[in-house]
Design brief:
alpha/beta, Molybdenum Cofactor Biosythetic Enzyme, Chain A, Alpha-Beta Plaits, Maf protein, 3 domains, six-stranded mixed β-sheet, five-stranded mixed β-sheet, 25% strand
């Protein structure tokens, strides 16, 4: 039976940008892991014509239609009434749902008002999936073409329903296939150049493995997706494809799947029982932010100084004032002294330092906006590298931090420091 899925989100707030649709992204991830293919995601307004129209379209295209939103107690929540009209049924009072609502609201309100009471009115021609953490029940409709499931738009309620009830029921009802994903994180190579390098590699990948390029500034995620009946067979194909990548772009690969580079660094240094500090100028503390966003960072990361002003570079990090005057704050001489100074100031094994011109002003012909120096220090040794990240201030700050951390990871792994 067709296992393709469509997701429909209902609500004016989604269309005017007041609320970001995170439900669909989460649902897509979970459905893929369960072996279902999401072929379309649609958002519509709280409008009877739009809701009925999208129900007709989706049920004609796909066997599984998952709907979120429009189940609240207020007048603009009309999804339930539209479902009744679409499935030619009527609302009836469900005592179990009413009991759930009373239990959920106990201690929250002094009495159950008519609007909350009416949430216990449900379509007669549906299977009710009870919702113990909200007032709106989940409604499962069977049809000749498949199923339609209506859920609350509140993320916590939707997620609980999907994990505990809906996905298990879908897996029992529909024959599904294995879907495996592997994401390779690639650094410092343009998308077109990467695609050219991988032409022969792509030509030799088995037909059950698909490749997608997902570029972002300075980085590319290369996603391999395998679909088929045998998950072990697919995994072997994916593993071979990854192994074949290393002779081509091994030096550009810095991670896999959902682990951020900062988490990898902390893990590496923890295994070494080493420590890390930062001395940041143009990145303004963003590297420290990324590192400290990871739980357990305090075991490895000792601290950071945002040495934005030259007197901080000289006073706290021991940078030579003569070198600043001779070479400028944005120079290899200064950024290397910043890294060495951070190691000394924080008494750490490793340090990373940044100095650059984020813009939009401050650039010169010799050092245009976007010029950045990054240095890495360890064991009394230091190396540095110059970059040009362009004239977008926000992007320069982001790329400085990410580039510095990616290269730090590679230097630790390859013992280059």
């Amino acid at each position: 039976m067709n296992t393709q899925v469509e997701i429909v989100t209902i609500g004016d707030e989604l269309l005017i940008g007041q609320v970001v649709d995170t439900n669909s992204a989460w649902m897509g991830q979970q459905l893929n892991l369960a072996g279902f293919t999401v072929n379309r995601i649609t958002s519509v307004s709280d409008n009877k014509h739009e809701i009925l129209s999208i129900l007709k379209e989706t049920t004609e295209r796909s066997a599984i239609v998952l709907v979120t939103g429009g189940l609240g107690p207020t007048r603009d929540d009309i999804t339930k009434k539209c479902l009744c009209e679409f499935f030619n049924t009527r609302l009836i009072l469900n005592q179990d749902v009413l009991a759930d609502i009373q239990c959920f609201l106990k201690g929250r309100v002094t009495h159950i008002n008519p609007l909350n009471h009416d949430q216990a009115l449900v379509p007669e021609k549906c299977t009710i999936i009870r919702n113990p953490i909200g007032t709106a029940p989940i409604m499962w409709f069977n049809s000749n073409s498949g199923v339609v499931v209506s859920m609350p738009g509140v993320p916590s309620e939707m997620k609980r329903a999907m994990e505990i009830e809906i996905i298990p029921r879908l897996k029992k009802t529909f024959i599904n296939q294995a879907i495996l994903h592997k994401t390779i994180h690639i650094f410092n190579i343009p998308e077109a150049v990467l695609a050219e390098k991988l032409t022969h590699w792509e030509d030799n990948i088995p037909s059950d493995i698909k490749v997608a390029y997902l570029p972002s500034p300075g980085k590319i995620r290369l996603r391999l997706t395998g679909k088929g009946a045998d998950s072990v067979f697919l995994q072997n194909h994916i593993n071979k494809a990854i192994n074949d990548l290393y002779p081509i772009i091994g030096e550009n690969i810095y991670g896999f799947d959902n682990e951020p580079v900062e988490a990898s660094i902390l893990k590496l240094l923890s295994n070494q029982k080493s420590t890390l500090s930062c001395a940041e100028s143009c990145s303004g503390g963003y590297m420290a932010h990324l590192l400290t966003s990871i739980a357990g960072a305090s075991q490895v990361f000792k601290g950071s100084v945002v040495a934005y002003a030259n007197e901080i570079k000289t006073g706290l990090l021991g940078v030579s004032n003569t070198d600043i005057e001779t070479f400028g704050a944005v120079s290899c001489q200064v950024v290397e002294q910043m890294a060495l100074g951070a190691c000394k100031t924080f008494n750490t094994d490793y340090a990373i330092a940044t100095s650059g011109i984020a813009g939009p002003s401050g650039g010169t012909e010799e050092k245009p906006v976007g010029t950045v120096w990054i240095a890495w220090a360890a064991n009394g040794k230091v190396i540095s590298q110059k970059f040009q990240f362009g004239n977008n201030r926000e992007r320069t700050i982001l790329r400085t931090a990410e580039t510095g951390l990616i290269l730090l990871k590679q230097f630790i792994e390859n013992n280059k420091i």
